Amino acid sequence: KQVRTKDTWTLSGGGGEDTDFGANPILADVNGMKLVADGDKGSAFWALNRETGDVLWSRTDLSSAHNAANGGILNNGAFDGEAFYVVANQPNNASILHKLSATDGSDVWPAKMFPTVTWGAPSGANGVLYVPVNADLVVLDASTGDELKRFNTGGTIVAGSAAITDGKVVVQSGMGVNKEGVEIQF
């Protein structure tokens, strides 16, 4: 299903604004309906019926603008059974975290602004949300959005999310060949 038309942007230049989907979608079951949900590089998040492809709801206002280099939603979000957690980059150098109701896309709590671009995806478990914000892993209470802790990992967290297992949180950070793994225990 194509949700936007005339998006023909290419690295060599071209006519569109580069608003395609840049990450894997989230498969979710909401009130007995099978959804596929994803954010695009145009700063919109979409929930579609997985069986018919019909758009159930969308949020096209997750940031005020986007750019081809790092704009919009670059990575998939997280889903906790009731809400989607999505980060949209805000030009020139900020990002905005949203908690969206899975049933209609409305804001569950006010959006959170971070003072740098986000290159990784949020993840969560046991009511705790982990959001990579450049080199920091920001830990939030998923029900309120309140910040619980912040860890600097020593390098940018790129294209992935924190892995959560057995009371441990593991995140890979660093661009290029200077990668570091950081394990965080609570």
Describe this structure in words.
It is a single chain. The protein is an all-beta fold. 0% of the residues lie in helices and 45% in strands. It has no helices and 15 strands. 38% of the residues are buried.
List keywords for this structure.
mainly beta, four-stranded antiparallel β-sheet, globular, 186 residues
Question: What is shown here, in short?
Answer:
By secondary structure, the chain is mainly β. The protein is built from no helices and 15 strands.
Counting DSSP E segments of at least 2 residues, the number of strands comes to 15
The largest β sheet comes out as: 4 strands, antiparallel
H-E string? EEEEEEEEEEEEEEE
* Total DSSP helices: 0
Q: What topology, given as strand order, has the largest sheet?
A: 1-2-3-4
Roughly how much helix do the residues carry, as a percent range?
under 10%
What's the mean pLDDT score? 85
Derived structural class: mainly beta
Tell me the fraction of residues in β-strands, as a range: over 45%
Shape: globular
Unreliable residue stretches = 176-180
Question: How far is it from the N-terminal to the C-terminal residue, by CA?
Answer: 42 Å
Gyration radius, in Å: 16 Å
What are the SSEs and their pairings?
Layout: E1 26-30, E2 33-39, E3 45-49, E4 55-59, E5 78-79, E6 83-90, E7 94-101, E8 107-114, E9 123-125, E10 128-133, E11 136-141, E12 147-152, E13 163-165, E14 168-173, E15 180-185
Antiparallel strand pairs: 1-2, 2-3, 3-4, 5-6, 6-7, 7-8, 9-10, 10-11, 11-12, 13-14, 14-15
